[in-house]
Amino acid sequence: MRIMSAIHFYKYQGTGNDFVIMDNRKGEYNFLTEEQVKFLCDRRFGVGADGLMLLNTQEGYDFGMKYYNADGRESSMCGNGGRCLVAFARQMGLKNEKLSFLAVDGPHEATLKGDSWVNLKMQDVNGVEIGSLYSYLNTGSPHFVKFVDDVQAVDVYTEGRGIRYNDRFSKEGTNVNFVQPLEQGIFVRTYERGVEDETYSCGTGVTAAALMTAGPEQKEYVIPVQTLGGNLEVRFTKTGERSYNNIWLCGPATLVFEGNITLP
């Protein structure tokens, strides 16, 4: 493995979902290996994060998003990660009122309110699998959604891991969300594949959970969402029995710190 001098990184968080980010618009970090990404995300020996992102140059867009899970593998869309990367792009000098970027699941657009509130447009959802005790849908990443009476009483690690590694999902993996309806909105806790543990928040997960709270009416919805790491809001329009568009994930995204680290 090559020996590298210190590299410069930034750490951002969105409702406790935290990420190592690097400005890769000149291709400086294309060399990163799975083991190096895993090292950077390690909470004891590296920086510590749920994932790592590269801000890339992308023709036709303000930037491109490349996302890796904490296990070092490139992964599907991360909603809170996307919001954090938008905030980072603004810090790196991309000042357009509306920013557009390309992620693994397709194009996204985003707006910023103040210094730290990011509104991120998600992909449309057309089709939801409805089981007797669950829903299963893709909001950029696959999500299993289960409603419970007391989300704080759920053993998210054990129950979530059991579903993520069952016969149905073990090969490709799924994220698992436990959702409690509140007087205003919902409380969501998520077991994330790739992290293989509960995270403080999951953007695509709260999006999936919010969509599943919609009533039969085809109209615009605004769903407040509580997570262990803070509050988010999901806005969307229900356009059919199992179809949704104009989906926006809205919430804070802030710089935690920046620094230098030497890779192994």
Annotate the secondary structure layout:
Layout: E1 6-14, E2 17-23, H1 34-41, E3 51-56, E4 63-69, H2 79-91, E5 98-103, E6 106-113, E7 117-121, E8 125-126, E9 129-130, E10 135-138, E11 142-147, H3 156-164, E12 175-181, E13 186-192, E14 197-199, H4 203-211, E15 220-227, E16 230-240, E17 243-252, E18 254-262
Notes on the structure:
- There is one protein chain.
- The protein is mostly beta strands.
- It has 2 domains: 6-122 and 253-262, Diaminopimelate Epimerase, Chain A, domain 1 (Roll), CATH 3.10.310.10; 125-246, Diaminopimelate Epimerase, Chain A, domain 1 (Roll), CATH 3.10.310.10.
- The chain has 4 helices and 18 strands.
- It has helices spanning 34-41, 79-91, 156-164, 203-211, and strands spanning 6-14, 17-23, 51-56, 63-69, 98-103, 106-113, 117-121, 125-126, 129-130, 135-138, 142-147, 175-181, 186-192, 197-199, 220-227, 230-240, 243-252, 254-262.
- It has an 18-stranded mixed sheet that branches.
- A hairpin with a 3-residue loop joins strand 10 and strand 11.
- It is globular and about 55 Å long.
Ranges where pLDDT stays below 50 over 5 or more residues in a row are none
Report strand %.
35-45%
Supply the number of structural domains. Answer: 2
User: What is the tally of beta strands?
Assistant: 18
Helix % is: 10-25%
Order of helices and strands: EEHEEHEEEEEEEHEEEHEEEE
CATH architecture of the largest domain: Roll
User: Based on helices, strands and strand pairing, what is the structural class?
Assistant: mainly beta
> How many angstroms does the end-to-end distance come to?
7 Å
CATH domain class of the largest domain: Alpha Beta
Count of discrete alpha- or pi-helical segments spanning 4 or more residues:
4
Spatial extent as radius of gyration: 18 Å
CATH superfamily of the largest domain: Diaminopimelate Epimerase, Chain A, domain 1
Q: Major beta sheet, specifics?
A: 18 strands, mixed
Compute the average pLDDT: 96
**What shape does the CA trace take?**
globular
